[in-house]
Amino acid sequence: MTNLNKTAILVFANSAKTEMALKPIQQGEALFNKLTQETLRKVKRTGLPYFHISDKEQKGHTFGERFTKAIQTIFENGFENVITVGNDTPQLSTAHLLKASHALQTGKTVLGPSIDGGFYLMGIHKANFDQETFKRLPWQRFSLFNRISTLLDETDNLLFQLPLLSDIDTVEDVKRLASFCKSISTTVLQLLRALVRQGKILPIIVASAYDKILLQQPCNKGSPLLLHS
Fold first, then answer.
1. Which of 100, 159, 86, 96 lies closest to 128 in space, CA to CA?
2. Other C-beta atoms within 10 Å of 223: how many?
């Protein structure tokens, strides 16, 4: 395995059906499907091996359990570095992913902060990842970025930070992103603007409902599939 191929990308993204349950936007299925397609397209352009782990393959009762198990699975497949992204950051680019890959190869840990206090991208080496410690972080809370930054600093990690971007978690996110024109694909932009015009955006459900919805599904699921190497 070459130095470059020691890095894999994890696309940790739910199906459109689950996204609609978590972020209830009427007729939003086309948007969520397109966001996943666009994310995978950008990931493929890096040439790096990647895994797409949806709610069908995720294992665990809480978001922290599911996310950290997914990362650990990639390491267990023989990779030294993992770059994690979701499907809800339309401004994410292939360039961001390649910068993360380069930073990892120089020994840095990578974070791409999001406006809501979390992050849209994390790049981490196997030696710097402890599943139990990361599982206990305040996932889906405003304090996440600060907490994980502190954790990395405490363990003497060199941090490389990508630009601040907005992801789609709330009604305000959709409205804000609908005003962009340069950093979002035309199709996604059209879908966002159409939803705003049609008034199809409903109040967002609280973040804690995320775990409740996914707990209704079996936790013992299939293994993630390496889609490209």
1. 159
2. 11
The H-assigned helical ranges of 24-140 are: 29-44, 63-76, 94-105, 131-135
Six token digits for residue 29: 């299925």
Alpha-helical (H) ranges within 81-154 are: 94-105, 131-135, 144-154
Domains detected in the chain:
4-216 (3.90.550.10)
Distance of CA 120 to the CA centre of its chain: 5
Place of tokens 């005003």: 179
- What is the rounded distance in angstroms from the CA atom of residue 61 to the CA atom of residue 129? 20
Q: By C-alpha distance, which of 197, 207, 216 is closest to 27?
A: 197
Classify burial at 162, counting beta carbons within 10 Å of its beta carbon; exposed 0-12, middle 13-18, buried 19 or more. Answer: buried
Query: What element of type H or E holds 174?
Result: helix 171-177
d(CA 42, CA 11): 11
In 71-222 the beta strands, taken as DSSP E runs, fall at 81-85, 109-113, 119-125, 159-161
Q: Which residue has the tokens 């198990």?
A: 69
pTM of the model: 0.79
Q: What are the structure tokens assigned to 125, written together?
A: 């080496």
13-62 residue pLDDT tens: 876 676 656 666 666 677 788 889 999 999 999 999 999 998 888 888 88
